[in-house]
Design brief:
Layout lengths: L5 E5 L6 H12 L7 E5 L5 H8 L5 E4 L16 H4 L5 E4 L2 H6 L4 H13 L3 E6 L3 H5 L3 H13 L10 E5 L13 H17 L7 E3 L8 H5 L6 E4 L6 H11 L2
Parallel strand pairs: 1-2, 1-8, 2-3, 3-4, 4-5, 5-6, 6-7
Helix pairs in contact: 1-2, 5-7, 7-8
Length: 246
């Protein structure tokens, strides 16, 4: 069964409360589309953004979650807590892996926690520039997939979206070519299917903008986008949504 395309905005550690509310309002007032649209604000703005989006078609998500359900974990936010307001959560974003030392084991634990709490999950995978230049990108991404999906029921496929985000393209203005992105998306679809995941879907993330979205989405294996910087500007983000909404 073909899944609808998705465009997810990851606001990262940006926006004031006022900016978050205004951005959510502008995105949320767009007429419903065939593509699934979601935004992941910083934790403090989840509640006010949820108020703005309530009753609309734009989904609310979180940027990460704890691997633990509850307990003495100061500063952590559990998937169960997020499920009170959110429909999805990002897991294994490259910035979490590189800046906060999240290992494959931690990513797997977070993925299982998210699914166990009833959240949909966007599992992020991708290689560094050194790994790409060494020709190891396929091995790295396949390893990340195998580690994250170990023990995850195959029938959870409709609740898991895989975002391919080459680390060298995130926030650098340097995005993968459409051919590169499509080739990796095809690899991920094949690998995740072989690992037992049903009905997988792949998003591309990495310096996506209004100018390159149409050429990137032309690859049949790409089911949408995980958008960083461009998601902070409503007009740019909506242009990317329009490119995916075909």
């Amino acid at each position: 069964m073909t899944r609808p395309r998705q465009v997810i905005g990851n606001w990262k550690m940006n926006t004031t409360r006022t900016e978050a509310v205004e951005l959510a309002y502008r995105i949320g007032t767009v007429a419903p589309r065939s593509a699934v649209v979601g935004v992941a604000p910083p934790f403090p703005w989840l509640a006010p953004v949820a108020d703005v989006l309530r009753g609309g078609s734009v989904q609310l998500g979180a940027q990460t979650c704890s691997a633990y359900a509850h307990g003495a974990y100061t500063g952590e936010v559990s998937a169960g807590m997020l499920a009170e307001a959110c429909s999805f959560v990002l897991v294994g974003h490259s910035e979490r892996r590189t800046l906060f030392s999240e290992t494959d084991d931690i990513v797997r634990a977070k993925l299982k926690a998210a699914l166990g709490a009833g959240l949909n999950a966007i599992l992020c995978v991708g290689e560094s520039l050194d790994e790409r230049e060494a020709g190891e990108h396929e091995l790295v991404v396949t390893r990340q997939l195998r580690a994250a999906l170990d023990g995850v029921p195959g029938d959870a496929g409709d609740r898991i979206t895989i975002a391919y985000e080459p680390v060298w393209a995130i926030g650098t203005g340097r995005n993968a070519t459409p051919d590169d992105a499509s080739t990796m998306a095809e690899l991920i679809l094949t690998a995740s299917g072989e690992l037992g995941l049903s009905n997988p879907q792949v998003l591309y993330g990495g310096s996506v903008n209004a100018a390159n979205a149409e050429s990137l989405i032309a690859g049949a294996a790409i089911g949408g986008f995980l958008v960083g910087g461009a998601s902070l500007k409503a007009d740019d983000f909506l242009a990317i949504v329009a490119a995916a909404d075909v």
